[in-house]
Amino acid sequence: MSDRVDSTGRSEAPTHSRISAWWFASAPAERLAAVRILVGTFAFCWVTFRLYEFWSVAKLPAQHFRPTGVVRILDAPLSPDLVLAIGIVTSVLLAAFVLGILHRYLAPLAALCLLWTITYRNCWGMIFHTENLLVLHVLVLAFTPSADALAITRRRDEAPTGYGWVLKLLVAITVVTYVLAGIAKLRIAGMAWLDGEQLRNQIAVDNLRKALLGDSIAPLATPFLDHPSGFTVFSVMTIILEIGAVVALVGGRVGRWWAFTAWSFHVGVVALMNIWFPYPLLGLAYLPLLRAERPFVWVRRRWRKLRGMPES
């Protein structure tokens, strides 16, 4: 079917064609590869530095084991040594994921092992949601051509569908997590959330609990709790940020401004509640919106120049 022509004689592409062109817009392979390396490095460190924790938690009495997610296939907990072995294998596979070694074969295994390892840890007590976005991003990167550049073993030809769609998928997943958080606030508190009292009470109770248990309270909690009216602004801004996260899909400068605002939000959470979300705080959750390849391209050019190699 041919495109329609408007009154000025210009062709009007069908809506689905415009959406397809937007979704599959080109992006450099190096950008997606940079996201793979940085996100994968975080996942590698996250697992490796917690191996002892995984092993220790797995030694708890079996009555503390509450299978969730993919671990529901188990009727009883695994032996602590097997849990440690799986964690070590996960670390090794994630290292290969970062380096881009046999990506088509090893990356999916790395992602599935990460999913299992983190889910298994959540079966022993409180379920943590802080790693959900990390696992989803690793899964996407593992099953897409994210190692077509900046990899030890890589394909020679560009992916037929390019790389822009993978970055948009990563952004879309990030957006969904924020939108769901905003919806959850409105479902629990309704429009009453916007007056700030719910947020103020939450911050007050959280810091009081920390004080009673001997933990450090947030540095700005006490000064702000003395001024209740400010929490109305914080509550409204939180909902706008989370429900309005869809603007990040626009990309470009708009997407980067939203990313900066979201990052600032997490800094505020630290200042008011002393709660840390490392993945967004380090900016990794927003990498698909940024030109993440620039440092890697610069290093590669400098390396080639030092060795007297021509630019590729």
Topology record:
Elements lengths: L3 E2 L5 E2 L2 H9 L5 H20 L2 H7 L22 H20 L3 H19 L10 H11 L21 H26 L7 H16 L8 H5 L4 H14 L8 H22 L4 H4 L12 H13 L6
Antiparallel strand pairs: 1-2
How would you describe the overall organization of this protein?
It is a single chain. With 312 residues, this protein is mostly helical. It folds into two domains: 134 residues, no CATH class; 146 residues, no CATH class. It is 60% helix and 1% strand. It has a two-stranded antiparallel sheet with strand order 1-2.
Summarize the structure.
The chain has helices at 15-23, 29-48, 51-57, 80-99, 103-121, 132-142, 164-189, 197-212, 221-225, 230-243, 252-273, 278-281, 294-306, and strands at 4-5, 11-12. With 312 residues, the chain is mainly α.
Strand order of the largest sheet: 1-2
When the domains are counted, the total is: 2
- Span from first to last CA? 41 Å
Quaternary: single chain
Count of strand segments: 2
Calculate Rg over CA atoms.
Answer: 23 Å
Structural class: mainly alpha
Order of helices and strands: EEHHHHHHHHHHHHH
Number of separate helices: 13
Proportion in β-strands = under 5%
The percent range for helix content is 55-70%
- Sheet of most strands: 2 strands, antiparallel
